[in-house]
Amino acid sequence: MTNIRVCSSADIQEGGIGYRFKVLYNGEETSAFVVRVDNEVRSFLNRCSHVAVEMDWNYGEFLDDSGRIIVCATHGASYDATDGNCLGGPCSGSPLVSLDVTEHGGEVFWQPSNTITVPPEGIED
Ligand code: FES
């Protein structure tokens, strides 16, 4: 499968607003996002492991003030933004689903998988 360009590197600042995009997860349209933590890009489905709802507080806002923890806006589950592992709250040990992203040449790319694929109308959210 080919790499899909998601956004420009400049679109995601360390600990800042995440960049949202659309994906199909097991054939169902949902959103995903990329954030930058420790100057590396990390990407997860925008789907809490507690209840399958979007997690952002405002559009693209996932990280707490530390810039290292994703907090779900619905009931406050918290996840390590470096690996998506549950840190506490209603996620009860269940991690986020991660996506395979890389960064080169000032751009961020996503490698689709068997379960997370490109929607027919593209990834723009
Ligand atoms: S839906 Fe995310 S904490 Fe409940």
Automatic annotation (TrEMBL):
Residues 4-110 form the Rieske domain. SUPFAM superfamilies: ISP domain (SSF50022). Keywords: 2Fe-2S, Iron, Iron-sulfur, Metal-binding. InterPro entries: Rieske_2Fe-2S, Rieske_2Fe-2S_sf. Pfam families: Rieske. This is Rieske (2Fe-2S) protein.
